[in-house]
Amino acid sequence: MNLSHIEHIGIAVNSIEEAKSYFEDVLGLKCYTTEKVTDQKVKTAFFKIGKTKIELLEATSEDSPIAKFIAKKGQGIHHIAFAADDVNASLKEAEEKGIKLIDKQSRKGAEGLNIGFLHPKSTFGVLTELCGTK
Amino acid sequence: MNLSHIEHIGIAVNSIEEAKSYFEDVLGLKCYTTEKVTDQKVKTAFFKIGKTKIELLEATSEDSPIAKFIAKKGQGIHHIAFAADDVNASLKEAEEKGIKLIDKQSRKGAEGLNIGFLHPKSTFGVLTELCGTK
């Protein structure tokens, strides 16, 4: 598969409002957009550093995957996303190489990108997203 | 503080030997160096994607911070590191803004860089490293 850079790092937080001032006032990054992703039951806030985005994730309901993650592991890094030239082809290649997939086909994620997740059981505990325009 | 990009993402693994084939054969990244960091009791393996490095971390003894991390949380993302123009000035600024530090002064890390860590209690659960040549 052809991956060009770390597209974003997803961080699960209790409250975007609280976390935002750390990323802005301490690290000096700027929040350039916020978005609700209804099917994931999250609110997101995006910051950019180099070519990589920091995506803060806040649950909008108790059965959100982010609420469950925080209940189990606490706030912290939730996933990393690699920019892929072709998300579906990359998912297929990963599966052929024995990787367990969460998504067999890409779906729409934040910022309108095609996204698909590899299962952390196959990726040394790292919840791994592939994303791109194709 | 002035941060330019994600310098690296540190991933705690049980065995670099086992994890390496996933990063090389599935994700298509190349391991360009391995290194022992004696004072951290770890072996490291580095891959590069865009301007960001993936740093695999394997404990070399049971009292290594990485062995303790895996015992508590399992394999997975251990920390993220931001490239800072001046590590000591950035640590000082963070402390003045109320962030708890692990390192009050920078020290030498992998690849000969100056590094310093912010405490995850102040950074929404994300163990955060600042690193750079200065």
N- to C-terminal distance of chain A: 13 Å
Classify the fold: give the CATH topology of chain A. Answer: 2,3-Dihydroxybiphenyl 1,2-Dioxygenase, domain 1
> Which oligomeric state applies?
homodimer
Order the strands across the largest sheet of chain A as they lie in space. 2-3-4-1-5-8-7-6
At CATH's second level, what is the architecture of chain A?
Answer: Roll
Low-confidence stretches of chain A: none
Mean pLDDT of chain A: 95
Number of domains of chain A: 1
Biggest pleated-sheet summary of chain A: 8 strands, mixed
Helix content of chain A: 10-25%
Overall geometry of chain A comes to globular
Question: How many whole angstroms does the radius of gyration of chain A measure?
Answer: 15 Å
Instruction: Summarize the largest interface: chains and residue counts.
Output: A-B, 39 and 39 residues
- β-strand number of chain A: 8
CATH superfamily of chain A: 2,3-Dihydroxybiphenyl 1,2-Dioxygenase, domain 1
